Amino acid sequence: MEYEIVNLKEKILVGLSATTSNSSEDMGKVIGGLWENFYKNGINEKLKNRVNDFSIGLYSDYVGENYLVTVGNEVSSEEDDELIKNYNLTKKIIPAGKYARFSIRGNMVTAVAEAWQQIWEMNLDRSFVADFEEYKNAEIDDAEIDIYVSLK
Predict the structure, then answer these.
(1) Which H or E run contains 99?
(2) Phi/psi of residue 105, each to 5°?
(3) Per-residue pLDDT tens for 60-78?
(4) CA angle 130, 138, 69 (to 5 degrees)
(5) Residue ranges per structural domain of the chain
(6) What pLDDT, in 10s, does the model give residues 97-115?
(7) How far is residue 99 CA from its own chain's centroid?
(8) Which of 43, 59, 94, 141 has its CA 20 to 30 A from that of 15?
(9) Do 146 and 136 contact (CB within 8 A), yes or no?
(10) In sequence order, what are the beta bridge partners of 67?
């Protein structure tokens, strides 16, 4: 699987978060539930300072096998404290730095799962600071997705 090394500027992400692990039986349910709640409750539409319409799935705060998943949008500045409180939102910083970018296209669920399977098997010099998927469109069966893996 091919990738490009890129240097990213810091991103501010606001969204819904939960902790899970790859070995957890309910990992798919946890992550899927975050995406469902984010759109079902219209949280993406309520964020006033969105940079673009891209959705992001962030994996951060790795502790052993566990990590925090945050589903949200990049924002240009702090969101309304009332909104964050009312919807129990999380603000996360995706740090500036070096990332491996994998560009994929296909079904939002299966193409991403297959890509991650290949990424996990690669010998990347990962930092495990912030890995994320950036969904460039909302086409379920023909999604354009960039996966970013933080590198040392």
Answers:
(1) strand 97-106
(2) -145, 135
(3) 999 999 999 999 999 997 7
(4) 25
(5) 4-150
(6) 999 999 999 999 899 999 9
(7) 14
(8) 141
(9) yes
(10) 20
Q: Shortest CA distance to 71 belongs to which of 100, 47, 49?
A: 47
Do 30 and 69 contact (CB within 8 A), yes or no?
yes
Three-state SS at 111: helix
Please give the biggest Cα pair distance in the chain. Answer: 43
Q: To the nearest whole percent, how much of the chain has pLDDT over 90?
A: 84
State how far the alpha carbon of 81 is from the alpha carbons of 34, 39, 48, 88, 128, in Å.
Answer: 20, 20, 12, 10, 29
What contacts 49, CB < 8 A, 6 or more positions away?
75, 76, 77, 78, 79
Token digits for 59?
């994996």
**Listed residue (3, 27, 32, 5) closest to 16, CA to CA:** 32
CATH of domain 4-150: 3.20.80.10
| Residue tagged 């500045």 (tokens) | 77
Judge contact between 112 and 147, C-beta under 8 A. yes
